[in-house]
Amino acid sequence: MIDSSRRSILTSGAAVAATAAASQVFAQGSQAGEPQAAAPQGLPPGAKVGFYENGNVRIRYAEIGSGFPLLATPGGGLNSRIAVWPNAVINIPEAFKDDFRVITMDQRNALNGESTGPVPVDDPWGAFAEDQLGVMDHLGIKRFMVLGFCIGGPFIWNLVKRAPDRIIAAVVSQPVGFRKETPNLAYDNYMKGWAPALTKQRSDITMETVDRFLKSMYGGSRADFVHSVSRDVVRSCQAPVLVMPDDAPPHPYVIAMESAMLAPKSEVSLYPWKDTKDKIPLAVRQVRTFLRAHRPA
Question: What class is the 40-294 domain?
Answer without folding.
Answer: alpha beta
